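Quick start: read one record
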Amino acid sequence: MQPGAAHRYLRQIALPEVGPEGQERLAAASVAVAGQSDGDLAAEIAARYLAAAGVGTVRLIGQAPPDPDVLRASNPDLTVQSLPWPGGDQPGHADADGRAWVRALDGVDLVVRSGFDDDPMLRATVRLGIPVVLLRVLDDRAEVLAVRRQGPCPHVDLAIPQHRAEGVFDGPAAVVAGTLAAGEALLILIGPTAPAAAATPARARHLAVPLDGGEPRAQDIPWAPECCACGGGATEMVVS
């Protein structure tokens, strides 16, 4: 770790959940953030938090990239990448869209995405064995589903219909959802250095925060198969 980075993240490194090893993992990490093209505030909030925490590369997919200098204001070592939504916005050949997502996510360590929909992007993360953090806002709550471990599964079916991520535009709800998603992403990236990660063997975690100020809820999902798409003969996990 460079001396400047060590000084910049001194307080963060002092946290037992992070430490020097965890901070180095963040600096080496590449995270894709997939959101709506026209002002997905939740995706932007997640990207800003990830950058500020010291993530080395943020790859923005399907959203208008902010000024890189804004993201680098708290992390001058940050690399910012930008890609259009793979396969475009129009319905196309499903298998081609799936292969396009595999290419778009090449070299990525984790994906943060608006929307819970099962589409070629999610199947591509299973194919590549990449953790994914999904976020959405409903009428009464903000939700995050963090799939910490899955795949890789070379036979997962990529030929399913494309579905553009649903943007989260409402201010307070977007801040809650984006912040939760970034927190879960950082916990996964830091890895076993974090006591919370070591104490939670479950492969997935669901968080729900009521927008009326009610009690937040967290549930670990300890499903067994390496691939949540094919299940290896086990029951597929379905999110609705």
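Residues 232-237 have pLDDT under 50 and may be disordered.
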